[in-house]
Amino acid sequence: MLNSLEEEEICSGKYREMSYLDQRTGKTYTNLNFWSKSLPVLNEFYTTFYDPCLNPFTSKSRMGKGGKVKIVPLDLSLLTPLALAHWVMQDGSRGTSKGLYLCTDSFNLDDVKRLSHYLDNKYDIKCSIHKSGALLRGQGGNYRIYILAKSVETVKFLILPFMHKTMTYKLGV
Length: 173
Prior knowledge:
CATH topology of the largest domain: Endonuclease I-creI
Strand content: 15-25%
């Protein structure tokens, strides 16, 4: 599902447009839904990012299909500028202080710290770790990586060549 209708252009091909009324706000929102096919060659990536061991104390937000837990792989060399661009396009958002949030809600705090340290050590991207809204309200929740405003230019340099033009607004472009 796309984040907004402005991103419709990146969904070339078949998709289904659906509208719904948000009972809380009284506003009507429109989504574009599309489906992709799974290829057996991609199974290696699935096993890299999902732990087959089910931990009964794991929050549901960290579970994938079949009860498998989302994990950060030990080999962070997979986090290339291209991968970071896709991460920002899908799960990045502008912060109120011109920084950039990366959603890491599905990972435990140790994994989020490892990702943050990797971004700093590999790309000199300065980050902090913020509690998500639910965690702040004492309702469980998780942590997110916040890329400091002073590092957004570094991020732009690394990932703009890989970003679709409809997504560059996430970098303030």
